[in-house]
Amino acid sequence: MTIDELADHGVERMDEETIREFLETQGTGVLGLPTERLPYMVPLSYGFDGETNLYFTYVVGDVSQKALLTEETAAASFLVYSADTEYMWSSVSLEGIISRVPEREWDSLGDALEPLQRPEALNDASESEDVAVYRFEIQTQTGIRHAGTPPEMDPDSSEN
């Protein structure tokens, strides 16, 4: 079904402002990087500048598959979603250009570099291991959400 067909079931498109607000309140998602066979998918926390850029901090050891793949491509996708209940969920799919941020620019990024949430293990590792920062410049975005009422609570529902 298309998004328009799902509108009859309470699914709606998110406008740019709603997408921006959603990205500002989340902090984690799934990065998709191209490979020869299948996309390489990795969960990541992110910082957001409130405009068009997400920032990822990679903890890179001796070998980092995600850093290697990121360096080999310019294009990537990122999915941010939240599912509070089966009737309250949101999903934003982003496509963009990903590039390494030189260390000399990190301080100028300010709060945009800080994700809302980051696993404690990665916080600890980032203090003792090498890190790299990447900018994901959003080129296209699509957001959908369902903020409906369960059928048994909807006064207009035929199931009552």
- Could you say which structural class the secondary elements and strand pairing correspond to? alpha+beta
- The CATH superfamily turns out to be Electron Transport, Fmn-binding Protein, Chain A
Given the structure, what is the number of helices? 5
Kindly state the percentage of residues in helix. 10-25%
Instruction: Give Rg in angstroms.
Output: 18 Å
Low-confidence stretches: none
Using the coordinates shown, work out and report the CATH topology: Pnp Oxidase, Chain A
The tally of beta strands, per DSSP, is 8
Regarding quaternary structure, what we see is single chain
**Main β-sheet, in a few words?**
8 strands, antiparallel
Kindly report the average pLDDT value: 84
Tell me the CATH architecture: Roll
Order of helices and strands: HEHEEEEHEEHHE
How many domain units?
A: 1
- End-to-end separation in angstroms reads 26 Å
In short:
This protein has 160 residues and is an alpha+beta fold. The chain is built from five helices and eight strands.
Structure description:
With 160 residues, this protein is α+β, with helices and mostly antiparallel strands. The chain has a single domain (3-152), classed as Roll (Pnp Oxidase, Chain A). The chain is built from five helices and eight strands; from the N terminus they run αβαββββαββααβ. It has helices at 3-6, 16-25, 65-72, 106-109, 120-128; strands at 11-13, 28-33, 40-45, 47-48, 53-60, 75-85, 88-101, 130-147. Strands 1, 2, 3, 4, 5, 6, 7 and 8 form an eight-stranded antiparallel sheet that branches. Strand 2 and strand 3 form a beta hairpin. The chain is globular.
